[in-house]
Amino acid sequence: MAKVINRRLILNVIIAAFTLFLQFDSSILDGDFAFFPLFPLGFTVVISMFTSELGAFVCGMIMGIFVDSSSSVHFSFNTIFYALIAVTVSLLVRYLFNNNVRSCVVISFFAAIFLLTVRYLVSFPLPGFNNVFKHFLKDIVPSSILTVIFSVVLFYIEKKIFKTLR
Amino acid sequence: MRFFFRTRQFKIILAIFLTVTVVSLTFGIVAHRMSPFSDAAGVIASPFKNAYRAVSNNIKDFFTAYSDGNELMIKNAQQEKEINELRKKVADYENTKNQNEFYSKYLGIKESNNDFEFTPATLISRDKSDEYKSFVINKGSISGISLHDPVITDAGLVGYVTEVGTTTSKVTTILSPNVSLGALDSRTSDSGVITGDFELAKKGLCKMINLSRTSGVAMGDYISTSGEGIFPDGLMIGTISNIGTDPVNSSIYADIKPLVDFSSIRNVMIITSFEGQGGVIKEGD
User: Fold this and answer.
1) Global confidence as pTM
2) How many domains does chain B have?
3) Structural domain contains residue B234
4) Which of A12, A48, B115, B153 is 20 to 30 Å from B244 by CA-CA measure?
5) What is the mean pLDDT of residues B255-270?
6) Is the CB of residue A71 less than 8 Å away from at least one CB of chain B?
7) Tell me: the pLDDT tens digits for B67-123?
8) Which residue of B has its CA nearest to A17?
9) Domains of chain A by start residue, with CATH
């Protein structure tokens, strides 16, 4: 049992490192992107769908801490919100949603919308509010859709991992 | 779901969450430092990021050298092996040459500003979901970096340090609306304030606001720092690409095209000390 959990943990650590690499690589994948998916958030949402509330919380918090070490947002924003989102997702899947790909689409979309909107509102001073609606439609929504696509791929990978290493 | 809030699990989660939040916010708001947790994560990830950065840059440079010499390679098929070996050497040479050029350009800035003290740093990660091109460098408080230190390249001003960790620091660029720095038109000496704008940041531009209606600024003028605030005077910022009138207060504004290409930054210099540093911040505080 412990061996299975360890193998699952190792695989998930590798996936987590890969999502952080995709998000913060500054050489090979560097460029000017109009919008960009939140890879670590997609991973956090998917992993939270398959674990207990405490497991999801720990995972969300660790991902948030690593995102905060590279992200431009200050005051541990990601640590706090990744942990909150992870616990909420875990509770939603336990009490309201079924653990399937449709839930994954809905939850990851709204999680990305929520995180990006709050980040925009929290991070920038008043001049930044000028284009908030435009920003929402042109940047936040497309970025959230891309996050959903990545989350769906991860969902199937994670499902396979959990089935194989049950 | 109500049951969950009465469980031991929920109490553990709440306790950890409150502890982490309070500690992080205290470090962030009071000390303007990275939270100890993110700092530890940065320290753990930093060697991996540095190693990856070095390898990926070499791969990029090698392939650039390879594609540049493609025509020669077709003509001299039998010398392919020799050429490849030479290319490797050229890539190494180019790296060394670039580094020498990098340092010699800063030497020029250093010679004209004797009071400047520099610390070189390398960009190790960039948040691609950030429109304002902020990034993380591989130097922190143990290298003498402190909050609000100006960051430059040989081309001009990049931004300033907004969060310091032990081995890494976060840099906010002049494209961000959080930036507000005094600037001068080098030709007319008209003064204004440089700040970021969401729409302009997408085009890689920033804005110079509060220019007097009688100012004689013109397209193509060079803009440099005025020495007010956290930046020393005379650092080149960019050129004026557009001029308009603010509909609210009728002052003139100018769109500024920074001299620095934020997308291709690899190495930067942090000005850790200069004459008059911190004076204005203390007054503001």
Assistant:
1) 0.77
2) 1
3) no
4) B153
5) 87
6) yes
7) 666 565 556 666 666 766 676 666 566 656 666 666 666 666 666 666 778 888 988
8) B45
9) 2-25+35-164 (1.10.1760)
Extract the tokens encoding A110.
């709204």
Q: Which of A110, A106, A65, A66 is nearest to A85 (CA)?
A: A110
Query: Could you tell me the sign of the dihedral formed by the alpha carbons of B194, B198, B200, B202, in that order?
Result: positive
In a domain, B224, yes or no: no
DSSP-derived 3-state class of residue B121? strand
Chain A residues in contact with B199 by the CB 8 A cut-off are 131
- What's the residue count for chain B? 285
CA distance A163 to chain B (A): 25
Q: Are A76 and B198 an interchain contact pair (Cβ–Cβ within 8 Å)?
A: no
User: A24 — contact with chain B (CB < 8 Å)?
Assistant: yes
> What distance in Å separates the CA atoms of residue B242 and residue B267, rounded to the nearest whole number?
29
Q: Given the cut 0.90, state whether the ipTM is greater than it.
A: no
Q: Out of A52, A68, A125, whose CB is closest to B177?
A: A125
SS3 content of chain B, % helix, strand, coil (to 5): 40, 25, 30
Domain extent at residue B15: 2-31
Nearest-angstrom CA–CA distance, B215 and B209: 12
Specify if B146 maps to a domain.
Answer: no
Please tell me the distance from the alpha carbon of residue A51 to that of residue B5, in angstroms, as a whole number.
17
